[in-house]
Design a protein that fits this description.
heterodimer; A: mainly alpha; ABC transporter involved in vitamin B12 uptake, BtuC; two-stranded antiparallel sheet; two-stranded antiparallel ribbon; 13 helices; 4 strands; 4% strand; B: alpha/beta; Rossmann fold; 2 domains; 12 helices; 17% strand; elongated
Amino acid sequence: MKLNEKKIDMQKVLAPAALVILYVFFSVVGDGFLSMTVFKNILESSYYIGFMAFGVTFIIITGGIDLSLGTVMMCAALLGAYTFKQLHFPLIVSLLVAVLVGAVFGFLNGVMVAKLKLPPFIATLGTMMMSQGFGSIITKVQSQTWPTATEPVGGWFKKVFIRADLFGVKGFPVGVFWLIGFFVIAALILHKTKFGRYVFAIGSNEEAARLSGINVDNWKIAVYTLSGIFVGLSGIMYAAAYTTITPGTGNGQEMNGITGVVIGGTSMSGGSGTMVGTLIGVFIMSVLKTGLSNLNLQAPWQTFFTGLVVIGAVLLDIQRTKAANRVKKS
Amino acid sequence: MNKKRLFAAILSAAMMLSLAACGGGDKGGTSGSQPSGGSQPSGGSSTSQPSGGDGEKIFIPVMAKGFQHQFWQAVKQGADAAAADLGVEIYFDGPGSETEIDKQVNMVKDQMAKNPKAMALAALSTDAVKEILAECAEKNIPVIGFDSGVPDDTSGAVKATAATNNEAAAALAAEKFGEHEGLVAKMQAATSAEPVVIGCISQDAVSASVTDRTTGFVNKMAEIAEKYQPGKVSIEGHTLWEKKVADPAIIIRVEISATTEATAVQTAATSLLGTKGLAAVFCSNEGAVTGFLAAVSDGEDLAEGGRYADLVVAGFDAGAAQKNAVRQGWFYGSVTQDPYQIGYNAVEMAYKAAKGEAVSDVDTGAQWYNADNIDDEMIALLVYD
């Protein structure tokens, strides 16, 4: 019991410490890294990854994985923009369309994993391609744009989700409210509800959960659908930050989300993890990317270092699992 | 156990940081806190001279659309040359592929944080950088577009553009098709029962340069074809260009690939090659050419005795594979822009704009090259590897 508490403490300290170290490091070495502009850049490139990561945290804790995050996010953003610009839906409806697209693909993943017993890796690999293809088919491989800040129709989109003149600050990063708001919601669901407890129970030992009367299949579908909703929201945040959505993209974005979760200390083998960890993991990546870019290291370098961080984080995960197993045996 | 974990954590953090620090040396002299060992050109960051700490240099970020194609390397050469000539400091960067709009936006934002005096930009999407352009306009940072530039900018930040007129350049290929005796004979002999198909392969219907080229080629080709088969020229394929007529004798078929990756372009090319009556193909950029060549066994099918020996093919841009296809006579010829001039002009214009001088658009030109003139001095300068 005592050891267990210590372990959790370690997890809690490691990731935030790494975040602080990175931030300080780049502030010292970088060229004007320690500035409001750069801080805003870091925030704005974190929003959509954050939402993806919140959702997939649930899935990873159940012992599953979702590879369709990135392409479903793009599909949601594409269809949202398509319904707004081409079909002239009100913007609010288009936003709901985006969330719905995410939820539908999430539900599909859930059914395939829970009812049809497909391995999550394969099922979501399938939806990864399907969502990418679907977005391209609907939009006829045309890139789609969301309204920019100065547009008369829907100009509020960016002001609500990205930047607005607020509290006397010009270009206040309002997206941070959404990120924190949904972080709190996700954390409450995971740590304070029956749903959350079942997520951990399924991840720790699926058979035991089943035998104790939990309808594992239905809860799994719910988990994947919830994650899908978060992915739909991430599509909205992506659109708010980058405006133009290109069909046929999104491959590889899922790794941003999954990496954030893993760096944040959630175990890939399921059964343990925290939402705070995920949030910090996401920021670690954004700080790293923005920092490297600040040092004028081109995109390939950023990808390279992100890869390095992933390996480091998984190594840590293995160490933790090993340690935990030893505790169990003794 | 805890110790071990802590050790692993510290080790990986140290590894990461030390690597980051090593990499930091590559950036020339912007921060000055890292004594860079050998100034290798590998990173791609460019300073005209090692910064000696004297007077403040004008800093101009040059934000390209990618590094993927050799085209951008030639643009970079031009930009570097201009930086050296003018004594300005530039930083040339672009996303890994031309669909990564988010990466480019982040990149531009990160450079904006360094308060540049001017910026050269080839935007992947104008809408995606609209707020940044507004900020530039507000802070009086002049923006110079290059290559496809920053179309439809409304902020007023974009002062001028150094670019090829893509429509006119692609129309050049259609004109050359109109001078090809074999193809003209086929167009004259075409009937509704056995229509002649002229294909156009483009890697996307998104980027302005590719779309302009497609439009330029399709319109000019239709105009030429109308001379031989009035009222019987149909434009088919992608909805953006579609202009169908009943019982056409000449069909201009626009094939757009699903993604910009070579394999996807190859798929599009294969489907076009399967079209009955295909007589000529125009590939609208280096990516389209690469995918097309992959579909014809790296060009061997176009050679004497090959499956598609009679096919008249024209490309756009250059690159090793395309140059080879032109030199071997597999291609009828290709259109090339002048990437070196694009890069050079972009930096020069940005420099002038930073100093408050007036700048205006520059057409950096296009040329037709084929097996006969590819090694001429004038052309050899334009076709990069």
